[in-house]
Automatic annotation (TrEMBL):
Record carries keyword Transcription: yes
Any single biological process term in GO: negative regulation of DNA-templated transcription
Organism of origin: Spirochaeta lutea
One Gene Ontology MF term: DNA binding
Highest taxon of source: Bacteria
Name the UniProt record assigns to this protein: IclR family transcriptional regulator
InterPro entries documented for this protein: GAF-like_dom_sf, HTH_MetabolicPath_Reg, Tscrpt_reg_IclR_C, Tscrpt_reg_IclR_N, WH-like_DNA-bd_sf, WH_DNA-bd_sf
Amino acid sequence: MISAVVRVFSILETLSTKKSINLEHLSQETGLAKPTVYRFLNTLRELGYVHRDENDQYFPTLKMFSIGSRILDHMDLPSITRPIAQGLSDRLGETVHLGVREGDEAIYLVKIESKYTLRMYSQVGKKIPLYCTAIGKSLLAGQASGEVDAYLERTRLIPFTPHTITDARAFHQELDRVRDQHSSQDREEHEEGIRCIASPILDHRGSTVAAMSVSWPVFRFDNAREAEYVGLVRDAAKEISRILGAQI
């Protein structure tokens, strides 16, 4: 890396975490010499990215926010996701979906087909329940407890299969596991014969905005590789999250 660029971003990232900060403390937090920090701050001030007040406190201006906002305006989640989803599907040979929440359901925005003839039936635009799908669980796990309670009050937990969780207490426990593991599973809860693993996708605020999943027919799901599957799905979701600005 070019050292000057690294130092500038070290200063900007530190400034972004403070309401304001003086030169001495900024030098201490970045580990850079005060003359170096002072020189870069002056350049950033001239460019309009940093302001110094009458008490010699420095803080970032909204110009940096404006750049970030313009980048977000041009981000297309399906376009960002598709090559990563394709890579995951190529690695595992199975169907990969990207889903987002739409009201009290989830909707598929991206689908990469399995390489096998026998595969899960689905399509972009299809809506699925939240409570009994891996994508839905990942989306709900990112919500506050009160929002989950409100969802459960509005939603009848219909048993799609004998494996569907239909008890609210048990469902809360399931979401706790999802939060702890940063991944969720559908163990034939929506469709018999289908296993799914999903992981949440976060944005720059750390909010869950989508989830990515892989689906297997149960006869192709290798239980001995479950931890590997979870890790691959989680890594793909993290890669997308980082593109969206998540600090993970």
